[in-house]
Amino acid sequence: MDTILIQKNMTMDQKMIFQSEYGKVQKNSTTAILLCLFLGGLGAHHYYMNRVGLGIVYTLFCWTYIPLIISIVELFLLSGRVRRHNEKKAKEIAGKILSV
User: How far is it, in rounded angstroms, from Cα 89 to Cα 93?
Assistant: First the structure.
């Protein structure tokens, strides 16, 4: 879902608040993919996506190289995960703004 569609029924003030709040929580696919590519075995991409628990597991087991292998697979799934995260946050913020 596009943020423009979410902002369709908002006033200008609400749109400004939405953009401000959304800019704080929005994640970038390129950043997530680069973190996964270069520091995936340490779980850096999970820390970036606010999945701290999984990031800690990756960090604790990095010596086994299993997190590295899993992060190679996650490279292909990460852009969709970032998109879903951004959509979820946009809907949450729009819901809060429109309910006030």
Answer: 6
pTM score of the predicted model: 0.90
Longest dimension (CA), the chain: 53
SS3 content of the chain, % helix, strand, coil (to 5): 80, 0, 20
* Angle of helix 78-99 versus helix 29-39 axis, rounded to 10: 140
Closest CA to 31 of 69, 79, 87: 79
Burial label, 78 (beta-carbon count in 10 A; 0-12, 13-18, 19+): buried
pLDDT at residue 100 tops 90: no
